[in-house]
Design goal:
There is one protein chain. The protein is α/β, with parallel strands linked by helices. A six-stranded mixed beta sheet has the order 6-7-8-3-9-10, sandwiched between helices.
């Protein structure tokens, strides 16, 4: 089930927390929703889940507008909030049965659905414990189970791996990827490597406006505007190699990274076939090409550049 956002705006007093943003999320897509604190991420997700009402704009889920039939659309959405509100005195099984009842699951189907959620989220060993006795990681799993219990087509998660240890992060990340095969997923997180490992697409919001939208690879290319190859070319006199590289048609700049060991940083236009040209140049001159590594801009650098201006 797809989501379509058009000119979405939320005002708190005179301040625009979200400022006329528009984007789509397709069925089976995992969207990483990034931004610094106060950028408008959580406000946007709360509007999509109908926890708060937009000041302007529209939200369509599966072609239906939330403003026309909010209760019907809520049935198709599972939401894991950042603070993951739970009832600490309830055992896991009792809590999931309670939530399932609120979600309208028929009483006859509810026990099997609870068992399935316990299996999917790896809670079997903890199912009889009170939620307040669980570790942070298992409480996150309970929160994910409650978001999934009614089998929603859309899953929205705000910082789902917050406070988890590395092993738990890997397990939750794997589960999110599996869910993304059949559900529409919006994932907000501050852990940027998690976004690259989990998400199909990245959307960055800053001061209520969208400042980037695309795959991590696309964002890198847009950020640099150039392709950089780190190379080591042996058997050639350094200055001669430097001059030959500069004369290649696609190359815009060459720098000595390490003159003593014939290491060069080659800058060129993306997609111009520079790597092939360098290889052919080495063959022609009987030079030994021992390294050629594309330099990638880190997602952290892109995020910082887009959100600190």
């Amino acid at each position: 089930m797809d989501i379509r956002i058009e000119n979405l705006t939320k005002k708190f007093g005179g301040q625009r927390a979200v400022d006329r943003i528009s984007f789509e999320v397709k069925t089976g897509e995992i969207l990483g929703f990034l931004g610094p604190n106060g950028a408008g991420k959580t406000t946007t997700m709360r509007m999509i889940t109908n926890f708060i009402t937009p000041s302007e704009g529209s939200i369509a889920v599966g072609g239906k507008y939330i403003s026309n039939d909010p209760d019907e659309i809520k049935r198709h959405i599972g939401y894991l909030a950042e603070n993951n509100p739970l009832y600490p005195d309830m055992p896991v099984i009792d809590y999931l049965e309670f939530v399932g009842g609120l979600q309208g699951i028929p009483k006859a189907e509810l026990p099997m659905r609870v068992v399935e959620m316990i299996r999917v989220t790896g809670l079997n060993a903890e199912k009889h414990k009170k939620i307040g006795e669980l570790s942070k990681g298992f409480r996150q799993r309970v929160g994910l189970a409650q978001a999934l219990i009614h089998d929603p087509e859309i899953l929205i998660m705000d910082e789902p791996t917050s406070g988890l240890d590395p092993n738990q992060i890997v397990e939750i990340r794997k589960l999110i990827r599996e869910l993304g095969r059949e559900k529409t997923v919006i994932l907000s997180t501050h852990i940027l490597p998690e976004v690259e490992a989990t998400c199909d697409r990245i959307l960055i919001i800053n001061r209520g406006k969208i400042v980037a939208d695309g795959t991590s690879e696309t964002l890198r290319k847009q950020a640099t505007g150039q392709e950089i190859l780190k190379t080591r070319i042996e058997d050639g006199e350094p200055n001669a190699v430097f001059e030959a590289l500069q004369n290649l048609p696609s190359v815009t700049m060459v720098d000595f990274a390490d003159r003593q060991h014939n290491r060069f940083d080659i800058t060129a236009q993306p997609g111009s076939g520079t790597a092939r040209e360098v290889f052919r140049l080495c063959v022609k001159n009987k030079w030994t090409l021992t390294e050629m590594i594309p330099f990638e801009t880190k997602l952290e650098d892109i995020f910082r550049e887009l959100t600190t201006n």
